[in-house]
């Protein structure tokens, strides 16, 4: 087994998924050969949740959250539990609205049950110091949803005090999202610019990509996208196209872009014709109809 000077958290934050898989495999192999300290076992549990989340394996991330709670919740020890609780609540905050939008009642019920268990464990848990205080405030912001500007700004403040730039950039992104939902583009833009600078300095590629997507949603200048230019679409139209290609329904488009479902449907219906007028499709020339792009959901 190769040694590494860094843990899987750094590789995961930089989007180095192959390296993360290798490090996680090494840790699991190590855990079967020796008895990990409680701290080491808790760190592994938190990384398992975050890894499943980043890989898009939401059921796996929920499984890892429940397993971690089974093992560590009875200890009521903040230094083991707060990283696990925050990682688990982030999974729930991502999965629950998607499950609701897609009508997946079974998954929604499961997420709700995990969420309630996380809240129950977190309620009486101590926060001894800035490290744990920051995690409680961020946990509460995730639990409240992604629309409360004040709670996310509080998370920004506590991550600054704790000196944790990756978490700070993430909190700035969520604060920008909440500001965008409230219609305050200027505030959203200021938070996004700072988040982007932090993410770029950390080489946190996945977080930086999410920041850039949000910048397009609130129509901040983000430079010329080569693909966008090739298809001849506006930034808004291209963002709709990206989301449709990712399998989003019209309702999910509306939620992510802060627009009505009707407006989302109009964008989806209009994109092919607009693209053909601005840049004729190579397949059939100016007179040929564009490929169909059917609204979904």
UniProtKB/TrEMBL annotation:
Residue intervals of the HTH luxR-type domain: 230-284
InterPro entries listed in its UniProt record: Sig_transdc_resp-reg_C-effctor, Tscrpt_reg_LuxR_C, WH-like_DNA-bd_sf
MF GO annotations: DNA binding
UniProt keywords, alphabetically: DNA-binding, Transcription, Transcription regulation
Organism: Thermocatellispora tengchongensis
Domain of life: Bacteria
Protein name per the record: HTH luxR-type domain-containing protein
SUPFAM superfamilies cross-referenced by the UniProt entry: C-terminal effector domain of the bipartite response regulators
